Amino acid sequence: MMSRLALRSLVGLCTGLPFVLAPPSVGAQGDSPPASCTGWQVDYALSGSLQLTDTTLGQGDGTYAVGPGSMTLRFDDVESKPGGRVSLVSYEMHEGFKVFSRTLFWATTVTTNTTSRAVGADPCGAPQGLLAGTTLSWSLPVPGVRTDGTLFCEGSFCGKFGAPSPGPSEIHIPARPTTFKSFQFGADMQTFTMRSTLVSKTDTPMQTAHLALSGREVRRACMPAARPCP
């Protein structure tokens, strides 16, 4: 039986049309292999649960859903050992919720609309965490998490007992070190959860905030070896 290549050559001779061999496809033997990944940069979509305590007369204490948010992590040394060093590249979480409090005579509503962002780690600094199996343990705090946004207070408590001023007001919580609890990944390494951890304590509004996280991978990119640091 005549091969397909011989048949095509014969057709070219009979018709007078030139016959040109197609170039090899990408990835064929002889091509340069792709660069090896020494790490992965992974983006996650986040949702969160914010627990407030120590609020004005305890009236705002409770747990509130927050999000959406995003986080990018860099995993290094993924080829040399099962796991690897981990550094936070970026973190952002939107916090939009209402706190309603009522006593026998007073009623107050505080609407929060803020965004918390983290300053990424120094690329030449020490890694912040270590992945072992499906557990990411953080040994160093995130260098700085800053919160900015607005509050809107309506009701009898506004401006009293550590509650925000009546009407709209701005809130700016300076960057502060934040220590994440361990991230527990699923077996497929595409989702994780984090138990509640302290993220802020303020006087106005008077409250202590703890945050729990859930993350889901949305994309990843192969990272070449990092450039040597000076």
Structure description:
The structure is a single chain. This protein is mainly beta. It has one domain (38-222): Beta Barrel (Porin). The protein contains one helix and eleven strands, in the order H-E-E-E-E-E-E-E-E-E-E-E. It has an eight-stranded antiparallel barrel with strand order 1-2-3-5-6-9-10-11. The protein is elongated, with a radius of gyration of 28 Å. Residues 1-34 have low confidence and may be disordered.
Specify the CATH class: Mainly Beta
**Which structural class matches the secondary elements?**
mainly beta
Average pLDDT, rounded to a whole number, is: 80
The N- to C-terminal Cα distance equals 66 Å
Task: Produce the secondary structure layout.
Elements: H1 4-15, E1 39-53, E2 62-76, E3 84-102, E4 107-119, E5 129-132, E6 135-138, E7 142-155, E8 167-178, E9 183-185, E10 191-203, E11 206-223
Antiparallel strand pairs: 1-2, 1-11, 2-3, 3-4, 3-5, 4-7, 5-6, 6-9, 7-8, 9-10, 10-11
Keywords:
230 residues, mainly beta, Porin, 8-stranded antiparallel β-barrel, 1 helix, 5% helix, 57% strand, elongated
Q: TL;DR?
A:
The chain has about 230 residues and is mostly beta strands.
